Description:
By secondary structure, the chain is an alpha/beta fold. Helix content is about 40%, strand content about 15%. The chain is built from 13 helices and 10 strands. The chain is globular and about 50 Å long. Bound molecules: calcium ion (CA).
Amino acid sequence: MNTASGYLMLVVLLITALVTFGWCLQESAGSEPAERSVGKGVKIPVILDTDICDDIDDTWAVALLLQSPEFDVKLITTAVGDTSAKTKVLAKILQTAGRTDIPIGTGIVGDLKKGHRQDEWVKDFDLSKYAGKIYPDGVQAIIDTIMKSPEPITLIAIGPLPNVAAALEREPNIAKKARFVGMHGSVRRGYGGSPKPQREYNVVTFLKASQTVFTADWVDMTITPLDTCSLVVLKRDKYKKVLDSNNPAAKIVIDNYRVWLKSGKKMNEADINTRSSTLFDTVAVYLAIKTDLLEMENLGIRVTNDGMTAIDENARKVNCATKWKDLGAFEDFLVERLTLPIGSAGAIKQE
Ligand SMILES: [Ca+2]
């Protein structure tokens, strides 16, 4: 080897080393912690608190949760109204999905007269024969799951917050050991993209609980307000893929959507063939994995006494998904997850 070619080789080696080093730096700086941990095979430990059986989007969100290989689901708790009746629906979902390994916690009992709209789906389901664990005190189950975890738990809340507020009041230390991700509030836009913020159902129906949760000392706090979550509706071909899928997750969703449409007043039953309702809660489940498809703003958010979520620079900082970067890509993500072939990574097992 002459001096010139030796020098050339040295330069090539040096460039290769620099490029590799730079790439490594970029990898470690650019990845979200959750995504990085998934890459190592470590899952994100999560609790879901859901007011399932009121609006139907919670059922879609539960299906998305079960279909997402990024999660290690530690607990699902039922919130608002007849929480025991809701536990029955959740138990049938987990049994159908082959996921009775996930414990259920029954949340604080509310108004029992209200009933719910997915009763028909569980009319032949015998809860006494259910194989999974059911904690009668869901609030304590939330506390115990967070306090016993060696790493921070991600608490995804997709309904009003009586359970989470009660858990904070009973054991304030849970906040320092948990990340909060919620479908809550309205920052600059209201329902369906309307041009002014509005009182959002999950915040305003249990206002004091919302104020407790929005001032707690969480590791961090992320929300999808109406600005983004109220724009998600599957239509035409995207909806048809879920409707026609044989995947248990898709069937759970569609079977429940059918009984939900039938049992509601002023519902258009023909929607079952063409479109979903607004799928608010699915966005919170996505945000517990990653934020790529949304514009995130770190804003001080104060829950006002009249139930608004106002921007206030002196209030607790919250990561708010205020705009979509690519709503179509999120819809595709949702459809893909719910129709994943049985047996593929993360797909729920067949009964
Ligand atoms: Ca909900």
